[in-house]
Write a structure and sequence with these properties.
2 domains; globular; Rossmann fold; 223 residues; alpha/beta
Length: 223
């Protein structure tokens, strides 16, 4: 049986993510999960919160709580967990986050969903009216900077996949539909296939989901 590492910037396990990833990877692949915040108390995690000017990340704790952290604090924690997964004999590690990070030292294949999601979206959506879902309003400007490289015809909506998600995603989808989006990208591993289906029903346009794009590429490497 093949093994793949899956590392969240929050706490593992991420059953909310695995529900969509496991069927794509298949029963012949064992998923070994790890989390950057594993073993940390809520008080310790609170100290990782971003301040003005930080690159903002949103993730989930083991109890389902949503937390906001700064990339600069998470990166060294991720590096440690990534290194341990590769040291255990795993050759492919999937990062469960679409945020932007500096390069990690890696002794194997480190799959970074942000890069995969960006390149896939650029390949099929360049120049179109692009709608983007991001978890927090605090991430809108950093998201605009990223996705304006695909098209200048851009609309970004904030909708958490973790807190009151059904209502906020429906509102975001309606906004993008009224704006006339031609293609939509859901730019967070937290967004689910069910959420994607809901957005597509409202907007009637193609929707690209980060977690399924990343897991299909992972499967390609392991087949």
């Amino acid at each position: 049986m093949y093994r793949i590492g899956a590392i969240t910037i929050g706490q593992s396990p991420r059953s909310d993510v695995m529900v969509d990833i496991k069927p794509i990877l298949g029963p012949d692949i064992e998923i070994v999960e790890a989390g950057a915040l594993d073993g940390l108390s809520k008080e310790e995690i609170a100290k990782l919160a971003p301040i003005e000017g930080d690159y903002v990340l949103v993730t989930r704790l083991r109890d389902g709580t949503s937390v906001t952290v700064a990339e600069k604090h998470i990166t060294p924690l991720l590096q440690d967990k990534i290194g341990k997964l590769f040291e255990s004999g795993i050759h492919v590690v999937l990062l469960l986050c679409t945020g932007e990070f500096p390069d990690f030292g890696a002794n194997g294949f480190l799959l970074r969903p942000q890069r995969m999601l960006f390149e896939v979206t650029k390949a099929v959506g360049e120049g179109l009216k692009l709608g983007v879902f991001t978890p927090s309003k605090d991430q809108i400007e950093q998201s605009r900077k990223r996705w304006s490289a695909v098209t200048k015809d851009l609309r970004i909506v904030a909708a958490s996949p973790y807190v009151e998600s059904d209502a906020s995603i429906a509102r975001g989808a309606m906004e993008l539909s009224e704006w006339g989006a031609q293609i939509i990208v859901m730019d967070c591993i937290g967004y689910t296939s069910k959420m994607k289906k809901h957005v597509k029903e409202i907007t009637s346009c193609p929707v690209i989901l980060a977690r399924t794009v990343a897991s299909r590429i992972a499967r390609e490497l392991l087949e």
